[in-house]
Specification:
Pseudouridine synthase, 7 helices, nine-stranded mixed sheet, three-stranded antiparallel sheet, 18% helix
Length: 296
């Protein structure tokens, strides 16, 4: 890139009126996805789409540091056709963070991807997450409507920032325990790290979040500190799980709804928080707590 005829660094800040010259090269061929033997759970599949219950720790698509060990590599290994989407991300309709578990949708055909992406953009796809957060919401539901942009000093982080992309998140309290709430969180938009950023912004970060956690259990003082520390020890990663996914089939228009229970690796944190023998004994704690019934 040249600025005023002089080669410039990628980090160069432009000022009004400067002339920028960019050399456009021939597009590189698409990278071939290598198959990887990674176990994944497919909860639904037909000739045009698949719904995956992604485990925590699995990156969705190839990126620096994870070129051959992603969900897409696992799908290629099982022979799943993938179509549509951005270069290097075939079939991806929406993503989950590496350490967020739960339901996500992939397309097998260009037509399905096009229709599902339009449905997502027009908010006709329902995505609900179960989240354990520090503190207690003052209102239920709580709507958070704040723009999100990349952090100006740390490109790996996002933040609420004027001039960012519009973002809307709505949270309902499912259960209230000691120093935490268990929330049902619904996305109105799909920005990077949206739920984590919005909940942290209103002072209720997700338990176990290493980036937006706001100090974790240290934010709890008094007699609740020991319980908070025990909850934190029971959460090996951010306590965020994509628990419900609903959409209309791109070809048949049939309404499809899928649910996924609170994950096993986060069960100790929920058990400690609840201190309820009945809940501890439950294999389906979200259903027990009527998480999937918005009206309670």
């Amino acid at each position: 890139m040249l600025v005023g005829g002089v080669r410039a660094r990628a980090s160069r800040r432009l000022v009004r009126g400067e002339r920028v010259t960019v050399a456009v090269t021939e597009a590189e061929p698409l990278t071939t996805l290598k198959p990887a033997s990674i176990p994944i759970t497919v909860v639904y599949e037909d000739e045009v789409l698949a719904v995956i219950d992604k485990p925590a720790g699995l990156v969705v698509h190839p990126a620096p540091g994870h070129w051959d060990d992603t969900l897409l590599n696992a799908l290629v290994a099982r022979g799943t056709p993938l179509a549509g989407g951005a270069e290097g991300r075939p079939g991806i309709v929406h993503r989950l963070d590496r350490d967020t578990s739960g339901l996500m949708l992939v397309a097998k055909t260009e037509r399905a991807h096009r229709r599902l992406s339009r449905a997502l953009a027009s908010r006709r796809v329902t995505r609900c997450y179960a989240a354990m957060t520090w503190g207690h919401l003052a209102q239920s539901p709580t709507a958070i409507d704040r723009p999100i942009a990349r952090h100006p000093d740390d490109r790996k982080r996002m933040m609420v920032l004027a001039g960012g992309r519009s973002a809307r998140t709505t949270a309902w309290v499912v259960a209230r325990y000691g120093p935490v709430d268990l929330l049902r969180v619904e996305l109105g938009t799909g920005r990077t790290h949206q739920i984590r950023v919005h909940l942290s912004y209103i002072g209720h970060p997700i338990v176990g979040d290493p980036v937006y956690g706001g100090g974790g259990s240290r934010r709890i003082s008094g007699p609740g500190r020991k319980t908070a520390e025990a909850i934190e020890r029971g959460a090996p990663r951010q306590a965020l799980h994509a628990a419900l996914l609903g959409f209309r089939h791109p070809l048949t228009d049939e309404e499809l709804v899928f649910t996924s229970e609170w994950p096993v690796d986060l069960k100790p944190a929920l058990d400690v928080a609840a201190g309820d023998a009945n809940l501890v004994a439950e294999t389906e704690p979200l259903r027990y707590l009527r998480f999937f019934n918005r009206d309670g």
